[in-house]
Design brief:
Order of helices and strands of chain B: HEHEHEHEEHEHEHEHEEHEEHEEH
Low-confidence stretches of chain B: 1-25
Distance between the termini of chain A: 10 Å
Structural class of chain B: alpha/beta
Oligomer: heterodimer
Number of helices of chain B: 11
Mean pLDDT of chain A: 89
Number of strands of chain A: 2
Number of helices of chain A: 15
Strand order of the largest sheet of chain A: 1-2
Largest sheet of chain B: 6 strands, parallel
Largest sheet of chain A: 2 strands, antiparallel
Largest interface: A-B, 51 and 45 residues
CATH class of the largest domain in chain B: Alpha Beta
Mean pLDDT of chain B: 88
Distance between the termini of chain B: 67 Å
Number of domains of chain B: 2
Shape of chain A: globular
Radius of gyration of chain A: 22 Å
Radius of gyration of chain B: 23 Å
CATH topology of the largest domain in chain B: Rossmann fold
Order of helices and strands of chain A: EHHHHHHHHHHHHHHHE
């Protein structure tokens, strides 16, 4: 009979091989789905995975767009992964992202039309602080009153969305906007904008920050005592306390870092690709980043790759919609399939499937 | 060994996938459409989609249609437009207000591609804007609402507080009040164009407060479904006729008629005569249609509503004709004065009698 046996430690080979298999399996199952809908499955899969990277007509544009789309996802997911590793569940990155954008934009727009080199760096700092402070609410409530950070951080997303609407309609509204909601377009104001650093690459400061965060998180988790404490707390909170980990401080650190990184992502987005504070500025990056963090197995390098993969399916999915007429719901099913299969294949990373003789068991 | 052969196989199949690039028909005019909601939302986006299909049928093989649904307003819209332009689209219709800046940005990068942005106000040499005078239809809805309400309480589900929506609120309230001086209107702002759950919640909250006529400026049929369950509540089809909800709760509708405009503009691209325009057409031009007034409405009220519709259509009557005061009591239009398009285009105030504030 077939038995599933837990491995003493996760298989190195399967850790690397499962994502590849999962993508291939998704291509096959997704192809069947598209074929059942009467579309050419090979064309659909090629449009999603190949065209954004290598199509003659638009790859030059969509390749850099991968970085634009993946940048905020990676930046937020890195912050979240620290907490998730330690068993601290910050579900409210979307709110921290929004508050970072509002805080940073407020600084820049309050000084408008002042033009100085130090304004953008100041906005970056304000963005990080905005996200940090928003994350401090669940952190302090948890350490002081032992509230559940999942609920508090999630509920604060809806509060942040209301503040966003009020900013777009009120205190950040463009006075020259003909009565329409939304702030001034910061991407069109040179000293407030977060432009592409090297033309044609799509890399703005947010992408640079994301790569920096990947490296910093890698060093922190592998070379630093704090990283060890985070991992230990996640695996055994009791043992961690015996080892002298200050668990309350760790909650503040993990939520604060996640909040600051999400706030940075929001600031770079609002001054770059989005350009302005608008009522629907929050596009769900904070929630998608949770998927990215788990897809990347809470590992910094994994998160980098997961962010890029998810960005690829977004952009390829858009192409498939208008080039092949696939409905957006089918693309979402396809993305969901990819995530499900990837996570389901974790089974073979942690378990061994063997055939054992029934008589001997 | 096995691992290596597997990797080779993966690489080989990846190459095979990429070998055959899609080919594009060069002779047909490629027309792109971008929708803010799903193509089957039952309202705004679906109606644009159906108009696109009518246009496609009209031209047959001479045009090729590409569409993208559920595109969020913001950076995603800009990417979708750019990719459409790169894929060889000749003209792109961007069918939601929030696509405005993205349309202008992308149009700047593709001077040879024509863009048509619905309900915006920014134009460029290769960007035209088009919208319908929905407020003309709102006047007819307001007339019916004023007559049909028994509780004298009317609800209005607003989307975003932009001039287009505020015009609709003012126009419907003005004409409800003319027919029924006791009428009160409550406005709820949802900050979304399409969210069936929120729309249903808003409609239910209104009905719970005793409101018995619900107008909507959001795109789904959720308010109709909620009203149908509640029973004695009247609604209006929005953007699409929504006739399937008649004769109750839907008693009439505003229908957006985009197809003739789409045909005209695509024809201009085919002929090479396309020029940037600023179209704002109403009932008289056929861009705003008033759906069949259902049997739930008494004959005399129906006749009155139709007379109002016809007088707006002929240009004899303008829905914003003075005397009209602003909410704070200050005068806006004097006796017999008619609102100019500039003021209407940027309308950011309520008229007298409306309660509550425009969010700011």
């Amino acid at each position: 009979m077939i038995a599933i046996v837990k491995r003493p430690e996760p298989s190195k080979f399967w850790t690397i091989a499962t994502p590849v298999f999962a993508v291939l399996l998704t291509m096959i199952l997704g192809g069947l789905l598209f074929a059942a809908m009467g579309k050419d499955p090979v064309a659909a899969i090629r449009t999603i995975f190949w065209d954004p990277l290598f199509n003659d007509q638009f790859a030059a544009y969509s390749r850099p767009q991968l970085l634009v789309k993946a940048g905020p996802l990676i930046l937020i997911a890195i912050g979240l992964s620290l907490g998730f590793k330690a068993g601290i569940w910050n579900i409210g990155a979307e709110g921290q992202y929004i508050m970072g954008a509002i805080a940073g934009a407020s600084v820049g727009l309050a000084l408008y039309p002042l033009d100085a080199w130090w304004i953008f760096p100041l906005m970056v700092i304000a963005g990080a602080i905005g996200g940090f402070l928003w994350a401090m609410i669940p952190a302090l409530l948890k350490t002081r009153f032992n509230t559940n950070e999942i609920l508090v951080s999630l509920m604060l997303v809806y509060v942040a969305e209301q503040i966003l609407a009020s900013a777009a309609l009120g205190f950040l509204r463009n006075p020259e906007g003909n009565g329409f909601p939304g702030s001034r377009n910061m991407s069109q104001i040179p000293w407030l904008s977060n432009p592409e650093l090297i033309p044609g690459t799509g890399a703005h400061w947010g992408v640079v920050a994301a790569l920096g965060a990947v490296v910093a998180a890698y060093v922190l988790l592998n070379k630093h005592l704090l990283g060890f404490q985070i991992r230990l707390t996640g695996e055994s909170p009791r043992a961690a306390r015996f080892a002298g980990v200050k668990d309350k401080l760790l909650v503040v650190f993990c939520l604060g870092t996640a909040g600051a990184l999400a706030g940075l992502a929001g600031l770079f987005e609002v001054t770059g690709p989005a350009g302005q504070i608008s009522i629907d500025f929050g596009a769900g990056y904070g929630f998608t980043a949770i998927i990215v963090a788990f897809l990347g197995r809470l590992n910094p390098i994994g998160i980098l790759l997961a962010g890029l993969l998810l960005a690829l399916t977004f952009i390829g999915g858009e192409l498939a919609q208008f080039m092949l007429g696939l409905p957006s719901a089918a693309i979402q099913v396809f993305q969901g399939m990819l995530l499900m299969i990837l996570l389901a294949m974790d089974l073979v990373v942690n378990y061994r499937i063997t055939i054992v003789n029934r008589e001997t068991t | 060994m096995k691992r290596r052969t597997l990797l080779t196989a993966v690489a080989a199949s990846a190459l095979a996938l990429g070998a055959a690039f899609p080919s594009f028909a060069a002779d047909a005019v490629k027309v792109g459409f971008i929708y803010v909601g799903p193509k089957n939302d039952g309202g705004w986006s679906q109606h644009h989609h159906e108009a696109a299909m009518v246009m496609a049928e009209h031209f047959g093989d001479a045009v090729e249609i590409v569409e993208q649904e559920s595109v969020p307003e913001g950076p995603d819209a800009e990417r979708v437009m750019t990719q459409m332009a790169l894929s060889g689209a000749d003209i792109i219709f961007t069918t939601s207000f929030g696509y405005m800046d993205a349309t202008i940005n992308v149009a700047g990068k593709f001077p040879d591609v024509k863009f048509e942005h619905a309900t915006g106000y920014k134009t460029a040499p290769n960007v035209g804007v088009y919208s319908a005078r929905f407020y003309e239809g709102r006047a007819v809805e307001g007339y019916l609402a004023g007559h049909m309400t028994k509780s004298n309480k009317i609800g209005y589900i607003g989307s975003f507080p932009i001039p287009e929506v505020i015009r609709g609120i003012n126009s419907s309230f003005l004409h409800a009040k003319k027919e029924n001086p006791d009428v009160e209107m409550s406005v709820v702002w949802l900050n979304t164009w399409f969210d069936p759950a929120k729309e249903a919640d808003a409609a239910q909250a209104m009905i719970d407060q005793g409101i018995d006529v619900v107008l909507q400026h959001t795109d789904s049929t959720a308010p109709q479904i909620t009203a149908q369950k509640a029973g004695n509540v009247y609604t209006f089809g929005q953007a699409a006729d929504m006739a399937e909800f008649g004769p109750m709760p839907r008693i009439s509708s505003i229908i957006d008629e985009w197809a003739p405009y789409y045909i005209e503009r695509v024809q201009a691209v085919i002929d090479g005569t396309w020029e940037s325009d600023n179209t704002w057409a109403g009932i008289g031009d056929g861009m705003v249609g008033i759906g069949e007034i259902s049997s739930a409405v008494p004959e005399d009220v129906k006749a009155g509503a139709e007379a109002l519709r016809d007088s707006i259509s002929s240009g004899e009557y303008h829905p914003f004709t003075g005397p009209i005061n602003k909410q704070d009591g200050s005068a806006w239009l004097a006796e017999g004065e008619v609102a100019d398009d500039g003021t209407l285009a940027g309308m950011n105030f309520y008229i007298e009698g409306l309660t509550g504030e425009i969010p700011q």
